[in-house]
Specification:
The structure is a single chain. By secondary structure, this protein is mostly helical. 65% of the residues lie in helices and 0% in strands. The chain has eight helices and no strands. The longest helix is centred in the last third of the chain and has 23 residues. It is elongated and about 60 Å long. 25% of the residues are buried.
């Protein structure tokens, strides 16, 4: 188990978003899409962090674990399997009124889903574009953020914020630049 790995909701969402963008970058014809090693690496680290979060009372960690294991075609870890069955049965046996009661509310009240969705999508795209340019020899600087922002229809400041927000929220072991299409 990873020592003291604490990931926030944003960290977990960022890793899953970047993983999704990485799959798009590999392309549908690349055989690595069948068994993406980078997503397997994300999954193992995330499952460790999710187990810690669940032990701390975060019921939503269970569904995120189910999502990761389903995407990787893996069995659920025992803690997640037991927690899922217990929560599911609490709804089926009328011990709680809703799925939100069993698994936790997915978003806080008052959340603006459209703006959250746009920011999540942009994080992965900015991160991938900056890493691709950096691998091609460009320095990560204001000029690069201006170019990436222009490509994505956002300003250089937002591009910079999203890149560093993404990079800094990833555990060091997951800061692997994605492979680009050829």
């Amino acid at each position: 188990m990873t020592d003291n790995l604490t990931l926030t909701d944003m960290d977990i969402d960022t890793i899953l978003s970047v993983g999704h963008v990485v799959l798009e970058e590999w392309g549908p014809d690349d055989e690595v899409v069948t068994h993406p090693p980078i997503l397997r690496q994300f999954g193992s680290v995330l499952l460790e962090a999710l187990e810690q979060r669940f032990a701390s009372g975060d019921k939503r960690a269970v569904l995120t674990a189910v999502r990761i294991c389903a995407a990787n075609n893996d069995l659920l870890p025992q803690w997640a399997a037991e927690a899922f069955v217990k929560a599911y049965e609490s709804v089926r046996l009328h011990k709680v009124a809703s799925w939100d009661d069993a698994f936790g509310r997915p978003h806080p009240k008052g959340t603006h889903l459209a703006s959250m969705r746009k920011r999540r999508e942009l994080r992965g795209r900015v991160f991938t574009a900056v890493n691709a340019a950096s691998r091609d020899g460009r320095p990560i600087d204001a000029g690069l953020f201006e170019d990436v922002g222009e490509q994505l229809g956002i300003g250089k400041t937002l591009a910079s914020e999203l890149f560093y927000e993404t990079r800094n929220s990833m555990p060091f072991s997951l800061r692997v630049p994605p492979k680009r299409k050829k």
